[in-house]
Predict the structure.
Amino acid sequence: MADTLVTPLNDSMIDLDVLARFDEKTGEPIQTSPYSRNVQAARADRLERTGQMTDWVLVRNRISNLGSRNASEVQQTVERIAERLGCRVADGIAERVIFRSLFKLGMTVFDPLEAELLGATPSMSHVNARQEYRSLVAALRLPVRLPVPVADNEPAKAAQLSA
């Protein structure tokens, strides 16, 4: 019943097998996978129950910063699959050393990045990583859910809402 379903895909033709089986010669999708069929069934069920379709978004993950023929082939294949499955493709996240470095510190690219914590001055990689995530979130077009206003004289209700 989700509004949005994000399917992350590593930047590899092998990982695209989770969506469909491909013709070995042409690279065209020839049969949807059990995962894709399950998603399609869930989307159809939600549409029938609520009148709204789940927005299914494919996101390439761990994209190499070096352009390659394989990366281009993966992108084209993802776009063909998306068209066939009735879903969208959003720009994904590049493979960056900064993610591994921050993970060890229990941090993300959105934490205040101070040289003392990082052991070095934050670089353009930090800035670029933040921008990639901001772009991804914008591309997802997530519905905005506004918080329910709580009157000052209702502390019990406020406690219930925050629990």
About this structure: The chain is about 45% helix and 20% strand. The chain has a mean pLDDT of 85. The longest strand covers residues 55-63.
